[in-house]
Design brief:
Bound molecules: protoporphyrin IX containing FE
Order of helices and strands: HHHHHHHHHHHHH
Strand content: under 5%
Largest sheet: none
Helix content: 55-70%
Low-confidence stretches: 3-9
Length: 287
């Protein structure tokens, strides 16, 4: 991070050890300028004095940052695919798999949350719910889990709403992958390339067979095989996030209704069962 790593000649002649870090700054440290720790801390605003609430809030905020990072990686992957740069796209997707694993590890910070502790601040959350996370919706939309109904809660934030509406109507990561494959001579049916992008992806026999064909040749250097595996890692890790969320909910509040108005656990289980990249999973059946 530092552009000037070594400093001064204050060390005594006998001290031949490493040069010491810089400790004098005319203004706030360059680290503070870059990271904005004070701004981050100012955003941690619990609504109760309950000792369990700060970790619930901070873990939620950290997960929001991971969602934003995932979105950046996948939007970058889309741009690389459109530029026919497969290596660049796979690199971004592979990075995102590491982000997803770190995101999933964050659930560990909430494992201690008992129903009694959650009840200590749950009332004060009012109708606030992760259901209203628009960054999470971007992540879902990029993975092809589209739904018009989840855009609606954000009408009061016009820029956010417009951005999400664009993502609903626009290509998912898989749409860009399929367009790339079609441009490179693979038989992607026109009805798939031109499908209604506002509804969830479903497996299509021709696309399933196309992935099966790619998987029949798993030699090193088969870049499309590497792409398929990177996407499968994404699908698996994202599914893990949803499953761990369901388990965290079961552990912290059982089958009570959610603050966001849903039936809670039963509703979440149904939502978590939606399949990411269905053709990549269906290909395993035909192989
Ligand atoms: C253990 C603590 C948690 C509990 C008890 C909990 C509870 C719930 C419930 C009941 C719902 C369903 C909607 C509703 O009626 O409110 C929900 C949805 C959701 N929550 Fe959580 N949640 C927890 C932690 C988190 C965290 C840390 C995040 C991170 C941002 C999060 C993100 C979400 C998202 C994105 C949804 C929408 C899921 C979907 O549409 O399938 N939740 N949560």
């Amino acid at each position: 991070m530092s552009t000037r790593r070594m400093h001064g000649s204050a060390a005594s002649p006998v001290d031949a050890g490493p040069t010491e870090p810089i400790v004098e700054f005319a203004e706030v440290t360059p680290y503070e300028q870059y990271v904005g720790v004070r701004q981050l801390q100012a955003l941690v605003r619990p609504v109760t004095d309950h000792p369990a609430e700060p970790s619930f809030l901070v873990v939620t905020q950290i997960m929001e940052l991971w969602f934003t990072l995932l979105r950046r990686e996948w939007e970058l992957a889309q741009r690389r695919l459109r530029a026919d740069d497969l290596d660049g796209a796979v690199a971004a997707i592979r990075r995102s798999v590491h982000h997803l694993r770190s995101l999933n590890a964050s659930w560990g910070s909430l494992l201690w949350l008992t129903p009694t502790e959650f009840n200590g601040f749950r009332e004060q959350l009012g109708e606030a719910s992760g259901f209203q996370s628009y960054e999470y919706r971007h992540v879902e939309f990029l993975l092809g889990l589209k739904a018009e109904s989840v855009v609606r809660p954000h009408r009061a934030l016009p820029a956010v709403h417009a951005d999400l509406q664009r993502a609903l109507e626009g290509p998912s990561l898989e749409d860009d992958v399929l367009a790339f494959l079609a441009r490179h001579g693979l038989a992607v049916p026109a009805e798939v390339l031109e499908r209604d992008r506002t509804v969830p992806h479903e497996a299509h026999p021709a696309v399933t067979e196309l992935w099966a064909g790619i998987y029949r040749d798993p030699r090193p250097g088969n870049e499309l095989f590497a792409l398929g595996e990177a996407l499968t890692d994404v699908a698996e890790e994202f599914t893990t996030w949803r499953q761990r969320h369901v388990t965290a909910v079961r552990r912290a509040m059982g089958a009570k209704p959610g603050t966001g108005g849903s039936a809670g656990l039963a509703w979440l289980e149904r939502s978590a069962a939606r399949v990411v990249f269905p053709d990549l999973w269906a290909a395993r059946t035909v192989l």
